[in-house]
């Protein structure tokens, strides 16, 4: 496949999968987010600092997971677009009363504060959104490459988990050289581990 063919295929997949997940009803979304939260908690028994996201565009919701992490005494962090390094993310401490602002994509993020910043390599886990994933752990994002850049240089101790609806799984994805596959992806119905551990 040429680069242009790969790009067209990825664009078509994004359109189809985004449409599918946005078609889910509020009740289906709520049930899915609670089920996925339970799976994620099983994967993070000792985590103290967890970065995740606030759902947008039909993404699997994280509110039940955030509340469960708070109940365990965990600190939660949200991604913020880096103000100087274009295409990169920072992670800012997120609490119930955190002041939020819309970024250039209209997505709410915490107001940037150096005092509330946690370097990515000091997190215990990063829960990443995605548009689609396949049977080998390849992840298709929105196309900005923000998470690929963030995940590319993380130490092994930081657990990375993709979060998705079951309808976002495909047998195979067209991949680019810069794509970073995920070691684990959680959906409402199961935990996918890509490596030596069996799926659940």
UniProtKB/TrEMBL annotation:
InterPro entries under this entry?
FTHF_cligase, FTHF_cligase-like_sf, NagB/RpiA_transferase-like
Provide the coiled-coil residue spans.
none
Q: Name one Pfam family in it.
A: 5-FTHF_cyc-lig
Q: Which residues bind substrate?
A: 54, 59
Q: Which UniProt keywords apply?
A: ATP-binding, Ligase, Magnesium, Metal-binding, Nucleotide-binding
The UniProt catalytic activity note for this protein reads: (6S)-5-formyl-5,6,7,8-tetrahydrofolate + ATP = (6R)-5,10-methenyltetrahydrofolate + ADP + phosphate
The Gene Ontology terms for molecular function here are:
5-formyltetrahydrofolate cyclo-ligase activity; ATP binding; metal ion binding
The Enzyme Commission number assigned here is 6.3.3.2
Where is ATP annotated to bind? 10-14, 139-147
Which class of enzymes does this protein belong to?
ligase
What PANTHER family does the record tag this protein with?
A: 5-FORMYLTETRAHYDROFOLATE CYCLO-LIGASE, ATPASE INHIBITOR/5-FORMYLTETRAHYDROFOLATE CYCLO-LIGASE
| Protein name, as recorded | 5-formyltetrahydrofolate cyclo-ligase
